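We emphasize that the prediction below concerns an isolated chain of 350 residues; any contacts that depend on oligomerization or on bound cofactors are therefore not represented. The input was used exactly as deposited, without trimming of termini.
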Amino acid sequence: MGMMTLQTMRQSRSMGRWGRRVACAMGVSCKGALLGTLAGGIAHADQPVSGSGRVMVAAPLAPSIEPTAPSPTRPPASVGANLRTVFVEDMTWTEVRDALAAGVAGALLYAGSTEQNGPHLAIGKHTFIARRVAEAVARTLGNVLVYPIMPFAPTGDPAVRSGHMRFPGSVSLSAQTYALVMAELAASAHAAGFTRLYLMGDHGGGEAVLARLAIELDRAWAPGGVRVLHVSALLARGEERGRAWLAARGEASGEHAGLPDTAMLMAIDPAGQWVHANRFAEADAATGVDGDPRGASPALGQVLLQFRVEAAVEQIRVFEAGLRPGPASRPEPAAASVPAPTRGQGQDSP
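Result of the prediction step, given as a token string:
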């Protein structure tokens, strides 16, 4: 048996053991296949992931991965402007390799969601917005790439049709499955050589899971030079600024599929395939909406998107500054801007 075959078998066994440890630590039975263990009931983000309420991830998470930490004195690269794309799925493997060699150290691991958004917004709203925000964040920072947007999150209980699962088309993952998928995504970026992993979520229902997961992954991988951060400011600070700005204009925000969500989707959907203004009048609690989409506009959406981008960039820059030697002062945030949609971009975005 060749060396490559032996190495592949060892890695497969190692990653399998890792996956089982993560599943066990998160309260999923260690016996049988993972999907089989979910048959007895599905846990969701609003329930404790384990008895202690923490996602406990055993360390070391991926013993087959040998981290290659960069020199601690190397300043962050600003090569993003020179890349034809910041999306990993649009690159060849050699382009990813070359970006890493040029100094790209960070990977954005962003989760969207597939959930109902009333009669007027497309079910993929969170995922579409996530892709656009991720691109703006990556271009602004200049030293990160964007991994494929994860399109699923905990959105309700399909067994009893709670939350968004009351409406056809919604998809929900249990908190355990959500954490496992994001952990495996992080492990893939780790294996590729990225040393700064940024977990981000566009759907608020998964934020607690991402926060706990980031703590455990960072604890396990930090000794090898790989750091993991939950970019909580994206929603917490970005939405707070958006609500305050709308309130100053006399506009109400709403919690789901109201004016903010509608405006942001309008801003990235010039073709109008994801926003149906002729259905705004039907948006109410009975149709899955909290808020009023009337009054939304692409211009409002651009401002609200920029609040998110700036909040995420600020948190990541402060985090990176704290990792560099010498006194870490809070940098002044750059003016992060959301790229204006180009012709056909609304149709081509995922």
